[in-house]
Write a structure and sequence with these properties.
mainly beta, Thrombin, subunit H, 2 domains, 5-stranded antiparallel β-sheet, 1 helix, 11% helix
């Protein structure tokens, strides 16, 4: 047997071992997704959370690979300027009568802002952590809000000026399931608040009504 043939076999064996080790190393790495908007932030793979009355998802926000907070995936972590995010915080819920092994029981604690240095809770008027799905444009947060009589409203809150604008939608609450109130859709200088029953209200970015469909009737406002 020639030396060249023996060397070829040895080299191939080394490649197989190296390839196997590399594959095992990749499988054990933390499943971090791509950076958010090419910034220093990343977030974990979505995991399931049990609210005891419903289920959802949560993710972990990382700043340069350091875990910062855990947030509700329903509306995600939304940017409000460079290196700043708004999100609904998730925390472990320990008051479970018969917890199941391996299940993460959680509670939505409220809307929070991380500015790249510190985390603080945002006290938005009539904001309900479970039902107030939200969207962000610039420094404005658009969200579902609920008055003391649980009438359904559309709200806009500016994080700098603290100005709050609210409009009653005329939409019936219908359910106590958080997924019923869709995340407000911002497109073409309009924001649409929609629910599972296909009822909706569409406004301009200052919450001036453009169109709404409530209980099988359509109401239209002509906008100059």
């Amino acid at each position: 047997m020639s030396m060249n043939f023996i060397n070829c076999i040895c080299f191939s064996f080394v490649l197989i071992i190296f390839s196997s080790c590399s594959h095992q190393q990749k499988e054990t790495q933390k499943p971090i997704q791509k950076p958010i908007s090419k910034s220093r932030y990343t977030f974990s793979k979505e995991q399931s959370v049990d609210f005891t009355v419903a289920t959802g998802g949560y993710l972990v926000l990382y700043d340069r690979s350091i875990a910062i907070d855990t947030f509700f995936s329903y509306c995600g972590a939304q940017e409000v300027g460079k290196d700043s995010f708004v999100y609904n915080r998730i925390r472990r819920y320990k008051e479970v009568d018969v917890p199941m092994k391996g299940v993460y029981y959680g509670d939505v604690k409220g809307l929070f802002l991380y500015d790249g240095r510190t985390t603080k809770e945002l006290k938005l008027p009539n904001f309900n952590p479970y039902f107030s799905s939200f969207s962000v444009k610039g420094k404005d947060v658009y969200y579902w809000s609920f008055d003391k009589d649980f009438k359904i409203c559309a709200s806009k809150y500016n994080l700098e000026t603290k100005k709050h604008t609210v409009k009653q939608t005329g939409i019936d609450a219908g359910t106590d399931f958080f997924g019923y109130f869709w995340q407000p859709v911002i497109s073409r200088n309009r924001v649409t608040f929609k629910v599972d029953s296909d009822e909706y209200c569409q406004y301009d970015l200052n919450l001036k009504l453009i169109m709404k469909q409530v209980v099988d009737s359509v109401y239209t406002v002509n906008v100059e």
